[in-house]
Amino acid sequence: SPQRGKQARRACGDLSNPASGRDHCTDHRALHGDCIDRTPRQAQARQQVMGPKVMSETIGAKAAILKGRPVRESCSEYTYIALPNDANTLGNVLGGHILHLVDLCGALAAERHSRRAAVTAAVDHLSFLQPVHIGQFLILKSSVNRAFHTSMEVGVKVWCEDLRSRDVRHILSAYLTFVALDDSGKPVAVAPVIPETEDEKRRYERAERHREERLHKRLSTGRVADAAS
Fold this sequence. Notes:
- By secondary structure, the protein is α+β, with helices and mostly antiparallel strands.
- It contains 5 helices and 9 strands.
- It has a 5-stranded antiparallel beta sheet with strand order 4-6-7-8-5.
C-alpha cells in the first residue's frame, strides 16, 4: 500500500542510488526482500534463514574496518629451563612437553595481535632436529605471520642453550593456526597483519600457501573418509 511504501522509505533513510537510478529502498528489497516484514513471525523466519550469511558478512565487514597491526606488536619470547620431571627415560626432554611450550608461546603472539582470547585450531608438520637435555634452556620466539578474518598463522621457533658452553642450537620450527574468540566464545574478526621487514614479508606470503595446503589436505581427507564410509 502507499502507506506501507512510505514506511519502507523512511526505514531505509529515503536515500537514492545515482548509479542505478533507483532509490535505496529498491536496492535494499532486491537483497533482503521487503524492508518491513508483514508480521513478527515473518521477521523471525527471515532472520533464521539469513543468520549464518549475516554473521559471515558482519565478521568480514569488521575485519575490513579494523586497523592493521605490525608484526612487531605480536612478537613474544618464552624461556624455560628443562627440569628432571620433564625428561624421558633417556634423560631428554619429552617431545610432548616441548610442544606444550610451543603452543603457549604461539598463544602469546596470537592474543597480543588479536587482543582477544585465542584457541589452537591446527599445528602444521614439524620435526625435532636435536634433543634437549635436562638443565638446558629452551628459548621460544613467536609472531603472527598473517591474519585471515578470524584465524591467524603464528610462527614459532625454538632454540636450546647450554648454560656452560653458551652454545645455542636450533631444535624446532612450527606453524600454528589460532582462532580469536569474543566474550561469548564465538570467532571474532582480527586486525590484518602489516609486514615491514623482508623476512616478515616473506613469511606473510608463505602463510597464504600454508593456508591453501591446509585447506587442500582437509578436503582430501574428507574425500577419503567419504570413500571409506
